[in-house]
Amino acid sequence: MTATVAQRLQDLGLEIPEAVAPVANYVPFVVTGNLVVVSGQVPIQSGQVAFKGKLGAGVSLEDGIAAARLCAINIIAQVKTACNGDLERVKRVVRLGGFVACTADFADHPKVINGASDLMVAVFGDAGRHARAAVGCPSLPLDVPVEVDALVEIA
Predict the structure, then answer these.
(1) What whole-number distance in Å separates Cα of residue 80 and Cα of residue 140?
(2) CB-count burial class (<10 Å; 0-12, 13-18, 19+) for 22
(3) How confident is the chain (155 residues) per 10-residue block, as mean pLDDT?
(4) Cα–Cα distance, 111 to 123 (Å, whole number)
(5) Which of 65, 101, 130, 133 has the CB geometry, 3.0–4.6 Å to 93, for a possible disulfide?
(6) What is the dihedral of CA 22, 145, 73, 65, to 10 degrees?
């Protein structure tokens, strides 16, 4: 028997928080047909930015991975809100877009964004396997090191 999303979250010791409110003039997600388009999520925890800075200039690879994982938790929170609290409606995580604020010589973007990708697979199983981009950039909003957006198919 396949584990439910709720069982996987419990096994991981994760409780999905309330969805983070937008910090500018946009909506946190849009539902169109059977797709949820989730705006870029940053590593905010309990209303505070949990990680600041750039990879390659003070932010460690491990902290970058943790920041990406926190972005993924915030994506799941947005999807949960879009699904009226029922994450079992998730049919597929279609795509993640990962942005890494970093120095010009930093080249481990995929390793950083694996923090988000690995969590999606851990929470949604095979339905969490997705297409992805992992891109470096000079800066991100609120001086965060990572931002991740998503496209999710729902029932």
Answers:
(1) 25
(2) exposed
(3) 88 94 92 98 96 97 98 98 97 98 98 98 98 98 98 98
(4) 19
(5) 130
(6) 170
